[in-house]
Design a protein that fits this description.
By secondary structure, this protein is mainly alpha-helical. It has 2 domains: 88 residues, no CATH class; 62 residues. It has a 3-stranded antiparallel sheet, covered by helices on one side. α3 runs antiparallel to α4. The N and C termini lie far apart (127 Å). Pfam families: PRTRC_E (PF19556).
């Protein structure tokens, strides 16, 4: 006798372990309990999916078995696969969220450190300016390339210091005639 039971089961394309429990009843019938378990699914809600119970005679179970189990088992299988996919995506989102937070915290700390260094350099330049050491003050100013956000402020200070130690040939003395 040849059956196509397992080929038909394979066509259902279920993910997980299919458990079949068959118990004979007193009235020449059977109770068949069908449960699909997917241990790959990390969501405990999978345990809430009840087994599918079928009652009938051997002939009734032979004739209606696959028609009665196909849709519910495929739905349960798809649900567990979706739950696992969802759990993986949630885990990935948590990781990325933690990574993004860590990256934001790191960027914030770097910016604070960078701004602190900028302020220290700028303060040092102002102290040298008060002492009348304009060349040293100019050199002590933070570099524009290191602090592009403060370009305008740095350039204004550079110009101000340059007027003290390197006066322009074309500035206020334009009307002065050269001495011969």
């Amino acid at each position: 006798m040849q059956t196509n039971f397992f080929r038909t089961l394979a066509k259902l394309n279920l993910t997980g372990d299919l458990q079949l429990i068959l118990r004979a009843t007193e009235e020449n019938g059977f109770v068949l309990s069908v449960l699909l378990k997917n241990e790959q699914c990390g969501d405990n809600a999978k345990n809430l999916i009840p087994p599918l119970n079928l009652k009938g005679t051997a002939e009734e179970l032979d004739n209606g078995f696959f028609e009665n189990i196909s849709t519910p088992l495929q739905n349960a299988s798809g649900l567990m696969v979706d739950m696992e996919s969802f759990m993986k995506q949630m885990e990935e989102a948590k990781k990325k969220s933690a990574m993004e937070k860590e990256k934001a915290d790191k960027d914030k700390k770097e910016n604070e450190t960078k701004e602190k260094k900028y302020k220290e350099a700028f303060q040092k330049a102002q102290e040298l300016e008060k002492e009348g050491k304009f060349k040293k003050a100019w050199s002590a100013l933070p570099k524009v390339s290191d602090y592009p956000d403060f370009t305008e402020t740095i350039r204004k200070k550079q110009d101000e210091y340059e007027r003290h130690f390197a006066p322009s040939l074309f500035s206020e003395n334009e009307n002065v005639e050269p001495k011969l």
